[in-house]
Specification:
Elements: H1 2-7, E1 16-21, E2 24-29, H2 39-54, E3 60-65, H3 88-97, E4 102-106, E5 109-111, H4 113-120, E6 123-126, E7 131-133, H5 147-155, H6 157-166, E8 169-171, H7 172-178, E9 183-184, H8 190-203, H9 222-238, H10 244-257, H11 260-275, H12 278-292, E10 309-313, H13 317-328, E11 332-336, H14 340-359, H15 365-373, E12 375-378, E13 389-392, H16 398-411, E14 417-420, H17 427-432, E15 440-445, E16 454-459, H18 465-477, E17 481-486, H19 493-510, H20 514-524, H21 530-537, H22 539-550, H23 562-568, E18 581-582, E19 591-592, H24 594-606, H25 616-636, H26 643-653, H27 663-670, H28 672-683, H29 694-702, H30 706-712
Parallel strand pairs: 2-3, 3-4, 4-6, 5-7, 6-9, 10-11, 10-13, 11-12, 13-14, 14-15, 16-17
Antiparallel strand pairs: 1-2, 7-8, 15-16, 18-19
Helix pairs in contact: 2-3, 3-4, 4-5, 5-6, 5-10, 6-10, 9-10, 10-11, 12-26, 13-14, 19-25, 20-25, 25-28, 27-28
Bound molecules: 1,4-dihydronicotinamide adenine dinucleotide (NAI).
Length: 713
């Protein structure tokens, strides 16, 4: 590839090269790292098209990308800015209309606008590294440069709809099977592959083949209409808050109903509707928040340590999940348990998930066997002598953790990273119990650890910078979103959770039902409400945590006993068949339980509370004000580096609706002053709990938002 760009060196800021090879114009997009379609590329493509149209020597055009990709999509640096012409849609139309055959030779990414360009060419060839996707939906958009019309013409309506609604990626092979590309090539160099294809077309006298004219796969039958109707129906259940999936269905359906140009005009109008929507702004925020988490102070000074072999202490819920995440990332994993029986249980959990992944077609039998070869269990810490990193996931008990860390201190080689998956415990204390606190770090996974994308990287005052950087790199290998957190009770996520969960408990005590609260939060966009989540993860966890906090809880703080009364009956949730809800016969969805409501009533009477009604709106105001207020405190004291890190934690670890961007983005959307006013209003009942964080009050006084802080940090 470097050769092809060297032969047509785009220089002096020219990021699109055009080189005449005999009678074929090779147009090379060279805008590292992914050849994004920023303004200079669009202008360059327009110039190359001018040349292709004007010069009679040009008999065919080959379009390729320099470096590792074809075209990775829109330029994210231009998000939110007014777009300058030429638009991608205009370039696509010109490519399609060219009276000389155009071949797109794709290697690496052809995503978003890149795919729309590729399908506007007359013919497509893909190398083995090529992959295709229309990820616009993930940013609250739809393909707006003809993709909703041209892709269905190549692959049919159902497959096109699937691509656009999921944003999933297709391999070269899948793209070929669907009809998105005409041929696959063994050639690694797209330039050579494209030239060969173009010469063949010229030799056989094959002319342009505009995609807009290919209507053979636009089959308008009952099946297709049913697919569209089912998609709409599913979206009202799963994504009812999102605009872009619904409009994608409308746009794709237009391929059946409208002439091409009218359908394009509709696509444009729907695209603009998406662009102006608040879901779009939330999704874009979430996208940038996720990228910003990698900006950590240690990045400047630390070089990552090498990680090949890992130890995991504990084979329970978390240990097994962490082992799987490490195996998926390519590490060799040794799991240490207390005794042979527990070790066998841990190994069985790992084996069970791998087998299920094979059954679902997510893993091949060979990949499973290879992972199993990299996995072993032991009861002997001496087997960790060569480990590069060890992650502890034993019981949440300081004495047990300290005993484990002294054993690790003795067993592990110098330079090995010693990590804890503790949810709440003081990492400074754990680190101080070893002779090497600089190597100790918190790696807080979320259950199930091999699936949930969030990883809180908890840094103590003594953690070495290279240990932090290594943790971030490991997170990348595990495909996780790492967020740096400081030491405090519960780090970023659980610390804030504890506060808004208290707000929910107060709501119940004062008159709301847990079912109303769950339903209000589902309406807000959460997949589950807090009490459903508690039933899923186990009421015993929260109960144990509240008992841990008994010793330090200020007696003046309001304390609601309802959750304790439920847990004391052994009603832990799904695993015990009842919790806040009942789960008859192992049901996954719970049904409201009148006995729970009776307990709630009893506790209200005991506390002398006359219950009152809460609207869903007030429930949300209280829940979110408590969340935002504590989040502001976590930002103010440096537990979180910046507000958008809190957003990333809540979107990836706590089910906060991604289309709202996160709690801090939500606060900016309604206005920090609104949150402050809510806190002040609620403080009239309970000034201790609803005390506004000074940072929030300061932002309001300065007329600033949390997002201003994102740009300073
Ligand atoms: P668990 O009770 O399922 O598993 C703990 C395992 O550790 C058991 O299999 C036990 O046999 C083993 N173990 C205990 N002492 C040991 C020792 N000295 N040496 C070797 N193995 C030992 O607990 P779970 O839920 O996996 O939690 C583990 C840790 O992860 C806790 O610190 C917890 O706070 C944290 N965590 C839990 C989450 C959850 O959702 N369950 C989420 C994030 C963190």
């Amino acid at each position: 590839m470097t050769q092809s760009s060297a032969s047509a060196p785009p220089s002096d800021g020219i990021v699109v090269g055009a080189e005449l090879v005999d009678d074929v114009l090779v147009v090379t997009v060279d805008n590292p790292p992914v050849n994004a379609l920023g303004y200079p590329v669009r202008a360059g493509l327009a110039r190359a098209l001018d040349r292709a149209e004007a010069e009679s020597e040009v008999r065919a055009v080959v379009l390729i990308g320099a470096g590792r990709h074809f075209i990775g999509g829109a330029d994210i640096k231009e998000f939110g800015l007014p777009r300058e012409r030429p638009f991608v849609s205009e370039l696509c139309a010109r490519l399609e209309e060219l009276d000389k055959p155009v071949v797109a030779a794709v290697h690496g990414a052809a995503l978003g606008g890149g795919l729309e360009v590729a399908v506007s060419a007359h013919y497509r060839v893909a190398t083995a590294t090529a992959f295709f996707g229309l990820p616009e939906v993930q940013l609250g958009l739809l393909p707006g440069s003809g993709g909703t019309q041209r892709v269905p013409r190549l692959v049919g309506v159902p497959a096109a709809l699937d691509l656009m609604l999921t944003g999933r990626r297709l391999s070269a092979q899948e793209a070929f099977e669907l009809g998105l590309v005409d041929r696959l090539t063994d050639e690694v160099d797209p330039r050579a592959a494209g030239l060969a294809y173009a010469r063949e077309l010229l030799a056989s006298g094959t002319g342009p083949r505009p995609t807009r004219e290919l209507t053979g796969r636009l089959i308008d039958d009952a099946d297709t209409r049913r697919t569209l109707a089912e998609a709409r129906e599913r979206l009202t259940r799963t994504d009812r808050h999102l605009l872009s999936p619904r409009l994608i269905v409308d746009a794709v359906e237009a391929a059946l109903d409208l002439p091409f140009d009218q359908a394009l005009a509709l696509e444009r109008a729907l695209f603009q509707q998406c662009e102006q929507s608040s879901q779009r702004s939330g999704l874009v925020h979430a996208f940038f928040a996720e990228r910003a988490t990698a900006r950590i102070p240690e990045a400047a000074t630390g070089t990552p340590r090498q990680l090949e072999t890992a130890g995991v202490i504990g084979g329970g819920t978390m240990g097994a999940g962490i082992a799987l995440a490490l195996l998926n990332a390519g590490l060799t994993v040794t799991m240490v348990e207390r005794d042979a029986e527990s070790a066998a249980r841990g190994a069985a959990k790992v084996a069970q998930v791998l087998a299920a992944q094979v059954a679902k077609g997510r893993l091949s039998a060979a990949e499973r066997a290879e992972r199993e070869r990299r996995f072993s269990t032991t009861t002997d810490y001496a087997d960790l002598a060569r480990a590069d990193i060890v992650i502890e996931a034993v019981f949440e008990d300081m004495a047990v953790k300290k005993a484990v860390f002294s054993a690790l201190d003795r067993a592990c080689r110098p330079g090995a990273i010693l990590a804890s998956n503790t949810s709440y415990l003081d990492l400074d204390e754990i680190a101080a119990s070893t002779s090497r606190p600089g190597d100790v770090i918190g790696l807080h996974f979320f259950a199930p650890a091999h699936i949930m994308r969030l990883l809180e990287v908890v840094v103590t005052d003594r953690t070495e910078p290279d240990v932090v950087v290594t943790a971030f790199e490991l997170a990348g290998r595990m495909n996780k979103v790492a967020v740096r957190a400081g030491v405090c009770d519960g780090f970023i996520g659980n610390r804030i959770l504890n506060v808004y969960r208290r707000a929910a408990d107060y709501l119940i005590a004062d008159g709301a039902s847990p079912y109303q609260i769950d339903s209000a939060l589902r309406d807000f966009g959460y997949p589950m409400g807090p009490f459903e989540v508690s039933d899923l993860s186990g009421g015993d966890i929260g109960y144990a945590n509240r008992r841990r906090l008994d010793a330090t809880r200020d007696p003046q703080d309001r304390y609601v006993h309802i959750a304790d009364r439920i847990a004391e009956r052994g009603w832990y949730g799904q695993k015990t068949g009842r919790g806040w809800y009942r789960y008859p016969d192992g049901a996954r969805r719970g049904t409201p339980d009148p006995e729970v409501l009776a307990i709630v009533d009893q506790e209200r009477r005991r506390a002398g509370i006359t219950p009152r009604d809460f609207s869903d709106e007030e429930i949300l105001r209280r829940y979110l004000a408590a969340m935002v207020n504590e989040a502001a405190a976590a930002v103010a004291d440096g537990t979180a580096l910046r507000p958008s890190d809190v957003d990333a934690v809540f979107v990836h670890g706590f089910g906060f609706p991604r289309f709202r961007g996160g709690p801090m983005k939500y606060a900016d959307t309604v206005g920090p002053a609104t949150i402050l006013a809510d806190l002040q209003e609620f403080a009239r009942e309970d000034p201790r709990f609803w005390k506004p964080t000074p940072l929030l009050a300061q932002l309001v006084a300065d007329g600033r938002t949390f997002d201003h802080l994102n740009h300073e940090r």
